[in-house]
Write the structure tokens for this entry.
Amino acid sequence: MRIDVLTTFPEMFATEPPAALGVSIPARAVKAGLVSIHATDVRDYTENKHRKTDDRPFGGGPGMVMMCQPLWDAVAAVEKAEATPTTRILLTPQGAPLTQVIVEKLAAKPRLLLIAGHYEGIDERVIEALAPMEISIGDYVLSGGELAAMVLIDAVVRLMPGALGDEESAGQDSFSAAAVPISKKESVERRLLDCPHFTKPREWMGQTVPEVLLSGDHGKIAAWRLEQRLSRTKARRPDLLP
Ligand code: 6GU
């Protein structure tokens, strides 16, 4: 998969340590050639001598608005760089909330073009002309779409076959889980929160590990974990239950 990002802060998308995409699973996916990440500076497509990408809003009010022309030309140039068609995505608090279902759909695309706005907003006419999917990562305000774009990249890249090591993928849903028909029971289970986890030592600060996890009875352990997932989801995120 190829991921292009349009931003005025391309340095945020470095893929060498200590950048966010330069460590852990995203870095491994890049090194393994499962994904390539190309950040493009929208400023390179400005046509004014100050390389300004934004201007004051018509109608007045605070903040600046990203202008149509630099963004439009940047999209055209980046898309021309390779023939693979892009899925255009604008990161914006006005977008649809990002979910694992959306992440799984995006992971199946050959090429994503992420647009990270960094001002009060973007001129509505260029949004209309580009017709991107609009995605938000939650109901809070970030200074720009860059961190949201990185969240999306991380979530997508870890689904690429081969991105997770054996230990990380153990117990995870398979890449194709959403595409193959699954039972109602399975589809409910996929939405549950995770169960609590424990490792050595058996006792820490007077607290012991639940006895069932030491029993060696795999049936009992699986039942206990499912029960924990259900009770936690009921208590913490009842909105996830059908
Ligand atoms: Cl995608 N952008 C910004 N600026 N803030 C956000 C967001 C995106 N998602 C949640 N908050």
Notes: The helical segments are 24-31, 68-80, 100-107, 124-130, 146-157, 166-169, 184-190, 218-236. The chain has two domains: 2-157, 174-240. The first helix runs from residue 24 to 31.
